[in-house]
Amino acid sequence: MIFQASKDIEAAIKGQNWTCNIEERENSSAVITGFNMKTGNNLQIFFISGADNDAAVRAFQFFQIPEGKQNEALRLCNRLNRDYRFAKFVLEDDGWVGIQMDMPVEAQPIGQVCLELLMRLLNIAEDAYPTLAALKDAPAAGNGSPNGSGNSAGRF
Questions:
Q1: For the segment 111-127, what is each residue's pLDDT rounded down to a tens digit?
Q2: Could you give the count of Cα atoms lying within 13 Å of 152 in the half-sphere of its Cβ?
Q3: Are 55 and 114 in contact (CB under 8 A)?
Q4: Torsion, CA 119, CA 125, CA 127, CA 129, rounded to 10
C-alpha cells in the first residue's frame, strides 16, 4: 500500500526537479532518492511510511566499515550521535554505518518537512564522512567483521 505521506513526499521531491521512486510493501511504502556527495559517494535515502503514516528517513549504506574496525566504528558512531542533534548513526550487522532521522506526520506539510530533513541529512553526511573515513587509515583493533552484501533490500 502506498501511504499518503509517501505521495506527499514524492510530490515535494519531484517539485524540486529531483528524481525518486516509490516502493510498496504490504505494511509500508518508501520514497527512494539518491544524491552524489562531495566525497564522490552516492547516498541513497529512503523516506519510509508505515501503518501509522509516519516518516522515517534512512540512509542505510552511508559508510562501509573496514574489516576489524567495528569497535572503533561504534565509538565514532557514539561520538557522531553526540555531535549531531537530528541524526542518529547506527552500525548495522552487515558492516555498514547508516544514518537515521524520524518525524511524525503531524509536522505539516510533510513533503516540505521531509525536504528540510533531506537537506539536513545531506549536510550532516558530508560533515561526518571524514570522521568515519579516518577508520581506513587507523590500525585494526578488536574483533568482528562486516558480513552480508551491503544490500538494503528488505529493510523497510
A1: 888 999 999 999 999 99
A2: 20
A3: yes
A4: -160
